[in-house]
């Protein structure tokens, strides 16, 4: 719900680009300074932790990069950036006459309505869901064993709908449920022939509620380039390769300021809200998701920026975009800057998530399995298999066993049934990972594992002392605490 890879990355101009991919260009013909893009990359590289970015100008990809072990072909969880795709489905359903902006939401769920709905609940309309102005003071819960539509309608609505902004993922879920009600298809299936196939977005996936409804407000996974395509579609007012894929009227309404949500001129979260899109500074708009997933559209610059990341401070990423990339755009083509272009190419090829540095004296935990008592991680045991090239963690948690292979100074790719710390006892059945390890101090092993379809990076630090090991573990980001209390294991 929410938690060997090559070090060199995709080249700027990929000769293996699929026919459905966006066209590529050097930056200068599109009026973009490669030196300014280098400045952006260097500033972004200092943020913990970037996963990928793609810069599109005049419909051409002029720069792109993935921080190893993240890779171009791997889908990435969008979190709340999914909301903008849900909005698009609503716009298409309205265009097909299946619903209207002013439809009351009780109309769609009579079986889930309270016996005596409040006046404010009766007044809540589709448009209120879209602009996060449902009248709620707190967001309705989405429990694993609940009926989410029923729980939403049972939640108090103290304000008149349309008068009070509250960012509300449950409201987006209701939009997904409404689309499924009126079309007979889940969002993913409804959008496939109308949006994903026209744009060449292959194999998207979307998480579902206990009732089999796509979660709407989060849970969509696509590639970085797919995010860029989506932004380019909105930049082009819904037109794609000569065909009107999404009505231009919907694009205009969805990205306009439909709701006021603050007055801080320095905050990109206070510039107004549309229909599941944020307004930004500098005349831009965006969809975004937790921990730094962005689809930024700059109409005045005819540009789109797609970013995936695992950051704690989402405003910091946007600040770097405004500070470094806005000056990169020029109104006409630039002369070739071969030196800057070569420097940018090399910089992008060498991007990588930082890995732990060695230098400590290794322990010899071979043949030992360390067991743990009851703990919040539900970690039952760990064993370490070591060789000259790296270590393999054998973790048992939540009743299942997973292996994480980590290389010395390189990212080793693989899969694991054990996920990031928040998902040791549940989540997906298999995770794509890239991992690296080092003996950072005497008898101290650090293993860093990137779960490359997500922003999550787990770091395990083991301090060995005879038949005992102390484990400190943390995620880079999370919806709650990202660190565990130290665990002590005994060799059996």
Give the arrangement of secondary structure elements.
Blueprint: H1 34-45, E1 50-57, E2 60-66, E3 76-77, H2 82-95, H3 119-123, H4 126-130, H5 148-154, H6 169-183, H7 187-199, E4 205-206, E5 220-222, H8 224-235, E6 239-240, E7 243-244, H9 248-255, E8 278-279, E9 285-289, E10 293-298, E11 303-309, H10 314-325, H11 338-349, E12 369-371, E13 379-387, E14 390-397, E15 400-408, E16 412-416, E17 431-441, E18 444-451, E19 457-465, E20 468-475, E21 487-491
Parallel strand pairs: 15-17
Antiparallel strand pairs: 1-2, 1-11, 3-5, 4-5, 6-7, 8-9, 9-10, 10-11, 12-13, 12-21, 13-14, 14-15, 16-17, 17-18, 18-19, 19-20, 20-21
Helix pairs in contact: 1-10, 1-11, 2-6
CATH architecture of the largest domain: 3-Layer(aba) Sandwich
- Arithmetic mean pLDDT: 93
Rg over CA atoms: 24 Å
Overall shape: it is: globular
Question: Which strand order do you get reading across the main beta sheet?
Answer: 12-13-14-15-17-18-19-20-21
Count of discrete domains: 3
CATH class of the largest domain reads Alpha Beta
Largest sheet: 9 strands, mixed, barrel
- The count of strands amounts to 21
CATH superfamily grouping of the largest domain: DD-peptidase/beta-lactamase superfamily
β-sheet strand percentage = 15-25%
Low-confidence stretches: 1-17
Please bin the fraction of helical residues: 10-25%
How far the N terminus sits from the C terminus, by CA atoms, comes to: 35 Å
What do we call the CATH topology of the largest domain?
Beta-lactamase
- What is the tally of helical segments? 11
């Amino acid at each position: 719900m929410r938690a060997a890879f090559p070090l060199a990355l995709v080249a700027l101009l990929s000769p293996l680009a699929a026919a459905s991919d966006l066209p590529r260009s050097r930056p200068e013909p599109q009026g973009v300074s490669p030196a300014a893009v280098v400045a952006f990359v260097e500033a972004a590289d200092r943020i913990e932790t970037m996963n990928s970015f793609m810069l599109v100008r005049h419909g051409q990809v002029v720069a792109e990069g993935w921080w190893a072990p993240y890779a171009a072909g791997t889908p990435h969880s969008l979190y709340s950036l999914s909301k903008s795709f849900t909005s698009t489905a609503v716009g298409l359903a309205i265009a097909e006459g299946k619903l209207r902006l002013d439809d009351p939401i009780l109309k769609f769920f009579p079986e889930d309505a309270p016996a005596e709905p409040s006046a404010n609940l009766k007044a809540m309309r589709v448009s209120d869901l879209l602009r996060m102005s449902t009248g709620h003071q707190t967001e309705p819960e989405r429990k694993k064993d609940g009926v989410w539509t029923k729980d939403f309608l049972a939640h108090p609505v103290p304000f008149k709908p349309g008068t009070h902004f509250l960012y509300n993922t449950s409201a987006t879920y209701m939009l997904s449920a409404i689309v499924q009600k009126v079309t007979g298809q889940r969002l993913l299936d409804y959008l496939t022939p109308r949006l994903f196939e026209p744009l060449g977005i292959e194999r998207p996936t979307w998480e579902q509620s206990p009732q089999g409804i796509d979660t709407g407000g989060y849970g969509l996974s696509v590639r970085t380039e797919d995010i860029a395509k989506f932004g380019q579609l909105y930049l082009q007012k819904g037109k794609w390769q000569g065909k009107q894929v999404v009505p231009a009227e919907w694009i205009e309404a969805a990205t306009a300021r439909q709701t006021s949500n603050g007055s801080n001129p320095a905050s990109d979260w206070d510039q107004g809200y549309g229909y599941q899109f944020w307004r930004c500074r500098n005349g831009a708009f965006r969809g975004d998701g937790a921990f730094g997933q962005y689809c930024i559209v700059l109409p005045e610059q005819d540009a789109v920026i797609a970013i995936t990341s695992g950051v704690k401070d989402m405003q910091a990423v946007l600040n770097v975009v405004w500070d470094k990339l806005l000056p990169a755009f020029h109104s006409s083509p630039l002369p070739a800057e071969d030196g800057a272009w070569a420097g940018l190419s090399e910089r992008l090829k060498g991007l990588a998530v930082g890995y732990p540095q060695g230098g400590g004296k290794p322990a010899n935990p071979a043949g030992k399995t360390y067991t743990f008592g009851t703990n919040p991680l539900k970690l039952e045991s760990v064993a370490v298999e070591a060789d000259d090239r790296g270590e393999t963690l054998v973790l048992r948690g939540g009743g299942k066993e997973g292996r994480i292979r980590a290389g010395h100074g390189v990212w080793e790719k693989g899969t694991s049934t054990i996920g990031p710390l928040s998902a040791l006892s549940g989540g997906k059945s298999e995770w794509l990972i890239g991992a690296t390890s080092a003996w950072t101090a005497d008898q101290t092993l650090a293993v860093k594992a990137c779960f490359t379809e997500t922003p999550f990076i787990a770091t395990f630090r083991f301090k060995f002392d005879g038949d005992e090991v102390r484990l400190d573990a943390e995620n880079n980001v999370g919806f709650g605490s990202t660190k565990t209390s130290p665990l002590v294991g005994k060799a059996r």
